[in-house]
Amino acid sequence: MKFFxxxxxxxxxxxxxxxxxxxxxxxxxxxxxxxGIADRRGFVEHIKKICELVQGPVSAEAVSTDSDAMIAExxxxxxxxxxxxxxxxxxxxxxxxxxxxxxEGIKTNVTLxxxxxxxxxxxxxxxxxxxxxxxxxxxxxxTGMDLVAQxxxxxSNYLFETEIIVASxxxxxxxxxxxxxxADIATIPYKVIDQLVRHPLTDIGMEKFLKDWEKVExx
Length: 219
Ligand code: E4P
Prior knowledge:
Elements: E1 2-6, H1 10-18, E2 24-26, H2 29-34, H3 40-53, E3 58-61, H4 67-78, E4 84-89, H5 92-104, E5 108-113, H6 116-125, E6 129-132, H7 134-139, H8 144-158, E7 163-166, H9 172-181, E8 185-188, H10 190-197, H11 200-216
Parallel strand pairs: 1-2, 1-8, 2-3, 3-4, 4-5, 5-6, 6-7, 7-8
Erythose-4-phosphate (E4P) binds next to helix 7.
């Protein structure tokens, strides 16, 4: 299973990278805005910096809404760095753009996926990745991970190459279930990556070992 970090914050990306478990990065317009990036040039420079930090797929989102404009934008984004994957929203125009971008060899991550049939369409159109948003489904009292289970099931029936990125991850349980279901990737906020590392029994165990070691050293 691959771990991506879901952030545009360079410090968080560096910290997760230092753990040795980071395979890629996903960003979105909200995460970019959160970093105080004020214009398109700043956005491009920021994506470049992320690509320098992580030698893996880095998702940068297209914000156009019609397919021709999305394609033009995707070409620009893909030219930033060979690791850039263009995030395309799961809309009619988005789907059209994905199949044309696949023909050009531009990698795509179909985002804002909330149903298994949307995921099926994205795979048929040639998406490199599909991102079901589990946390946002949980927020409206639907079970987000049920969607992932259905997508894993459908993709395995047809041997699609599209990889599933479990997105909108809010807690360690999402990651655990994603791994048990065999999802290819989870894109995880830094806070949740940190939660995955920690266990209270590890902390208690460490404290006791260190205290007992003081006896060995005669303190
Ligand atoms: C995924 O690629 C998205 O950037 C992200 O997971 C959305 O998460 P949110 O629902 O917490 O905003």
